[in-house]
Specification:
This protein is α/β, with parallel strands linked by helices and 258 residues long. It has one domain: Alpha/Beta hydrolase fold, catalytic domain (Rossmann fold, 3-Layer(aba) Sandwich). The protein has 10 helices and 8 strands. About 2% of the residues have low confidence.
């Protein structure tokens, strides 16, 4: 399936299905398409909403985790989403989801994190830019996944194009540094909603020890690992990821309703 992009007052986003809202947040080098298999699986039972985060073109003075959380809050206000929703985030998107939850607890019914930053990450952003070095970019994109074949030429070309723009690189570096500075260890105990942690057992960017630490610090959390899987389980192991997500949503329905 090809995702249909909607636009409203400068916001670009996916909005498919009806029912309880699943709000999906992509990572630093991510895109709406990262969640394609989640949309395909859940749009018949849920309203799946994915804002395109302005990582590459937001004002440089706002290029950081707090600025992206502000963007998500503004987006939800613009499209009229005020009811509590399930928030899912991958990598940087998980970090944004965490801060959004801390700032807007009544508006979050559940939280799902996969390869989230917020405690520790070995970020590609810290080593940029290496302009014009396609082999280096190819290697780093492949590093995201357990199976390097998931790093398709199209995906590598997209990241390579980004890294050849000075303006985009400056924003990537600013956001990556903001994420590394913005450690949430002392705040995570405030999160009370049911939380699912889905982690690649072979994640080299936010390794399994990070997942265990999130599980320890978030009181109402459960941790599931996927073997032969790296930093983006919803892309690399979509069937298994969707199964875990559906089980979690079904299992916590009564708790959320209360």
């Amino acid at each position: 399936m090809e995702l249909q992009i909607k636009e409203k007052n400068g916001f670009q986003y996916v909005d498919e299905g009806t029912g309880e809202v699943l709000l999906l947040l992509h990572g630093l080098f991510g895109a709406l398409s990262n969640w394609q298999q989640v949309v395909a699986e859940f749009e018949t039972r849920y309203r799946v909403v994915i804002p395109l985060l302005p990582i590459y073109d937001m004002p440089l003075t706002k290029a950081g985790v707090p600025g992206l959380v502000n963007f998500v809050e503004d987006f939800l206000a613009e499209v009229g989403l005020a009811e509590p929703c399930t928030v899912l985030g991958n990598s940087l998107g998980g970090h944004i989801a965490l801060v959004y939850t801390l700032r807007n607890a009544p508006r979050v019914s559940r939280l799902v994190l996969t390869g989230s930053s917020g405690l520790f990450e070995d970020s590609m952003g810290g080593s940029f830019p290496k302009r014009g070095n396609y082999a280096y970019v190819q290697e780093r994109v492949a590093y995201t996944f357990y199976d390097p074949a998931v790093a398709t030429p199209e995906l590598v070309d997209e990241v390579f194009s980004v890294t050849n723009s000075n303006a985009k690189c400056l924003r990537i570096i600013s956001i990556a540094r903001s994420a590394q500075r913005h450690n949430l260890a002392k705040e995570l105990q405030r999160i009370q909603v049911p939380t699912l942690l889905v982690w690649g057992l072979n994640d080299t960017i936010t390794p399994p020890v990070v997942a265990h630490e999130f599980n320890r610090l978030i009181r109402n959390s459960e941790l599931r690992f996927l073997d032969h899987c790296g930093h983006a389980p919803m892309m690399e192991r979509p069937h298994e990821f969707n199964q875990l997500l559906q089980q979690f949503l079904s299992r916590t329905t009564a708790a959320v309703a209360d």
